[in-house]
Each structure stands twice: as C-alpha cells, then as structure tokens.
Fold these 4 entries.
Entry 1:
Amino acid sequence: MDIKKTEAPVNTTTVDKNLVDAPTNNIYEAISVIAKRATQINSEIKKELLEKLDEFATYNDSLDEIFENKEQIEVSKFYEKLPKPHALAIQEWLDDKIYYRNTKNSQE
C-alpha cells in the first residue's frame, strides 16, 4: 500500500451506503471489514513514522541541549497531512482492493 499515491480524501466526506454494502449486502459486515483494515493501516503508518522519527532521537538526559530539528518537524507535518486510516480503508474498499471472505458461507 502506498499511502502517498492514494485518492482518499483528507477531509471527512459522506459515502453512499449502497456503495459500501454492495459487495457484502450487509452494512455491518462491510463496516467490520473496513474497520479491521483501518486498524492494519494505522499500525503500518505508526510503525513507519516511529522508524523515521527514531533516526532523529537523541539520548541525552540534559534538558539544556534539547533543540528543534527541522527535518523531524517536516516528517511530522507530512504524516499529519495524510488521509486518516479510516479514509484510506474506505477508499480501498470502494476500489475493491480489500480481500475478504465470509467463513460461515465457506464451511457449508
């Protein structure tokens, strides 16, 4: 998943319910799948951000030497401007990029 090249909206938008529940014919099942994917996306973004910010970490106990790092601020601002994980998950769902299966139907 490349979060930099997504078409997901940055702001909150209204999505047609019929488009969301069309693949499953059940809005609750669709929301459950989207929520699980949003959790996955959030953990991926958090891991990536922490790895990038760890490069700037200083391990000093002295409060006198704390200073602002311009690159660290730019990295933080970039991640703040990204679409939220739920918006990315909904966009993936609407673009049929999420694989899901109903285990109750496959056991019959």
Entry 2:
Amino acid sequence: MSAAPTHPVDVLLILARDDLVLLARRAGTGYADGQWNLPSGKVEFGEDAVSAVLREAAEEIGLQLDRSEARMVTAVHHRNTTGLARVGLVFAATHDPDRHGEPVNAEPHKCAEIAWFRADNLPAATYPYTAAAVDAWRAGEPLELSGWDR
C-alpha cells in the first residue's frame, strides 16, 4: 500500500503591467536561492485561496489588492527534482501604479530583489514552477504539468 499523498497547495501571483511580470529573486531561504519566482506561498490552515494570494501580495511586495482584482488564471501541478509535488493556484492581477503604488521588497530576509521582466523573456534563472505558471497563463492553458514525465 502506498503512502497518502501530501500535495501542499500554493498560491502564485502574476502581477502584470503591460507585457511585464514582477518576479522576486530568492535569497537566504535555503531553497531555490538565486532563482527568480513569482510572489507566492502556501495556503494556511483555515484560509481560502483568494485570501492567501492577497496576504502573500501584502507580505512579499507590499501591495494591497482587492478580492476582485485577483483572478485565477491557471493551475500548475509541479514536481521538483527530488520528486516532491505540489499544486499551485495561479492568480493574475493588473498592476495600477496610481492605485497600488510601486511594489517593494517587503521580505528582504527571503528576497534579494524584485524586478519587472517581459513575460515572453523570463530570466534564465527563473524557477521552473514560476516559468510553468507564466507560460500557462500566456497560453491560456487551464492546467500545466511541470516536472512530470509525459
């Protein structure tokens, strides 16, 4: 008999402005440090997915988004190189500098920097989970499998 699956549920935010998306370069966490990823995190116990993505936006990039601004655009079932899998619910929001202000690196102990990148030309050091989420969003795919043999 196999063990019961444990697939954490993540929320990832594609903050878009024109043809750009906001990424954060991880640092000091011991996991994927030096790689670029979307503002993201785990859904906490008792928390719904929309509340989780709004919380992560505030915690990581200092933005207060309304519930109506974050729309789910795709899901990613990602398996990392060690074989551990997770499910990511990917939300997109359009950045409005007049309403939101500019994003900031609100977690410098976990993030070296934030920067805008063209959605069709992400940096080479983009974490595969993030790259899969952005690619699926751009293609309008409702589900992306990342890190799985097909």
Entry 3:
Amino acid sequence: MLNRQIVLASRPDGVPAPENFRLAESPVRELQEGEVLLENQVFAIDPAVRGMLDDRDDSYLPAVPIGGLIPTMVLGRVVRSRNPAFKEGDYGRGFVGWEEYSILNPNNFAIENVHVDPSVPLTAYMGALGWSGITAYVGLKRIGEMKAGETVVMSAAAGAVGSVGGQIARLSGCRTVGIVGGQDKADLVTGTFGLDAAVNYRAEADLGAAIKAACPDGADVYFDNVGGTVLDTMLPNMRDFGRIVVCGMMANYNNHDQPVPILNLWQVLVHRITMRGFLAYEHLDMLEEAESQLAAWIKAGDLIALENVTTGIENTPSAFINLMSGKTTGKTIVRLNEGVTTL
C-alpha cells in the first residue's frame, strides 16, 4: 500500500506558489501495538499553516522542514487498528498532514473519536462542526464573554471561523457587524448569514468612519481573525471594558518579516480593553457543548455552513494558495475522493 503525501519543496516568499509543494510517495508500514491506520477522507485547510512554512521559531507550532509533510487537521476512517479505543470503521480526527493515510497512536497523540451522524455530510466535521466552528464558539462564549444585547464585530466574516462566529453571535441575541474584503462577501454575510451590517474594508477610504457608522456606540466584543490595519482601526472603536478575542493574524501570515504596525495600542488603556489570544484545543471542557449546539443549529437550518470544497490530494496546494490569496469564502476543505459527502 502506497501513501501519497504533499511535502514542502521550498519556502514561500509571500503568498505560496505551486512550486513550493511536491507530491511524494512512500509505503505504509505495518502497525505497532497501540496504533491505528486512518484512510483520510477530508482535510481542513487553515491559514495558520502558512506560518509553519517559514523557517522561524516564533509560532506556537514548529516550522516544517524542507521535505516535511504539510500539517493539517484530518478526518479519516479507521481501516486497521491495534488499539482497543478504535475499531475498523470508526472515524478519527487529528492534526496530522496532507497525506492519504496516517498512522497514529491515540495513547500519545491527540486523536478524537468522531461519532459521525449519517444525516450530516462528512465535510461538516471539518468546518462548522469541526475546529473552525468550535473555535468560533469557544472564542465568543468563553474568551469574549459575549452577552445578549451586545454589539459584536467579526473580522473575516465570510471566512471559515468568521462565517460561523458571526452567526453564533446573531443567534445569541447580539447585534453583529461583519468586516469583509469584497462587496460579494458583504452581501453574503448580511443576506445569507443574517448579520446586521457589513463593512467592506477594500472599498472604504476611511475604514474607521465606516466601522463607526456600522456600530456608532462601539463594539463590546471584537473577534479578530486578521490583525493588521483592521485590528488597529478597531481599537478606538471599542466600548469601555470591551473584549478583543485574538484568533488569527491573517494580515501578517504572508509577510511575517514586515508586519503591519499597530499604532492605536494606547486605546487598550483608554477603553480598559481586555485583549486575549486563545487556542481552542486548550478548552476541551467546552467541546461537547460546542458540538451539540452547533449541530442543533445546523440541523434546524438556523446556521448556514458555507464550504469551499476541492477534490483530490493533488489539488490540495492550489486550495491552500487560493485561501492565502483571499479568493475563498467559508471553510476551505479538500475531500480525498468524490464519494465524500459535502454540504
């Protein structure tokens, strides 16, 4: 049995390019005691991976060596098992890489046994019902301490986390404003997702004035997926004792060596803002609550899960490049074969 993998051929300079990646093959070895073999079905394509492609040591995840497997969250079906916690036919979800087969030892590697509902498409477990949705839920509920009646501003509101987060805020009784990079995305978040207002930062000569017009009394919670100019502009537009949830820094992922300067940090003191970064997997006590509520909203039709799906491992680099070029909406997902169900 051969395992096809996408490995790092060279380090990107700015937005990744096809030549930065290479398709490799290697045999699948025999399982050892305690291990399971996953036949991967779905990859979650996330922008945070971009930071691991540079030769840097200032990320919360290690840099990928040249020739190394590109890391990603995978959903796979167990095809062989030497671990009593997993049987053949089970589904496992873990942070592995762009490969067709993964060998994991659940005793020393975080792999989640996913109880798949046959009425829910598999891709949902890597998007709105996966760590994108869980991240949005944990960030708003625990880190942002969101309350009904408050104003929530969501950056990258048409993206993987933002598209779910904006709807969670709306469903929780908040006035919700989405910041996006295009009029089509603005129409999407107000029309399809039901947010109260949208700001297209690409079309605004004065972004601060546009944000103030959308939330004249300021924001109680700002969920930051992008950093950079949007974060800098949001700081003066926070209400006193507002909370900034730091989830991602998309504006700097392609240019770590020349990050966008933050000039309005003084406003943290002026408005007594709480600003906190978080990693969702450090809040596993909320996992069951998040998955249960997200599933209920999706099944009821209250939460629209938007997916951008590519098929085939060989097309994974192009899906990632499109994501890092700002060309996608919703969750970017790669399914390994046509038989994987999508939303």
Entry 4:
Amino acid sequence: MEIHSLSQITPIQTAGVAKTQTPADVTKDFGAFLSDALNQVNQAQVDSSILADKFAAGQIDNIDQVMVAGLKASNMLQMTLQVRNKVIESYQEIMRMTI
C-alpha cells in the first residue's frame, strides 16, 4: 500500500462556482421574480377573459377550453393572494419582535 503526501493533491478549482451576490443583487432578482409572477397572473386573467368573450360571441364551441382557462386564472389568483397574506403575516410577526 502506497501513501501519498498531501503536497501531491491538487487544489480545488473554483472556475465553475458562481460569485457571491450582494444583497442589492438578490433584491433585484427577487423583485424581478415577483414582477414576472404577477405579470403571469395578469396574463392568465386576460386570456381567460378573452376566451370567455369569444365563447359568448359564439366564436369558440369548446367550453372545456374556456373552463380550464378560467380555473387556471382563478387558481393562480388564489395562490397569489395566499402568498401575499403570508408575506403580510410574516412582516407583522417581525414587527412584533422585541430587539
């Protein structure tokens, strides 16, 4: 059995490791994420409304498509409201903490 000294071990390469982000960078990324999420919820609501209008005008015969779009928009809005409620609840809890 052969024992090698530690000097023969090569150092770990950090070329593929991302640099540490600053709090400002993280805030920008999180803000962009929230903005994109809200835009997606809004777009789902708009798409649902357009499909409902087309169905009412007789341009679409498939009610399944209209119902799925409406339920998708409704679920996305409910999830957004629940996240908002949790954020507000967390903020209130932090404000009640004593320093």
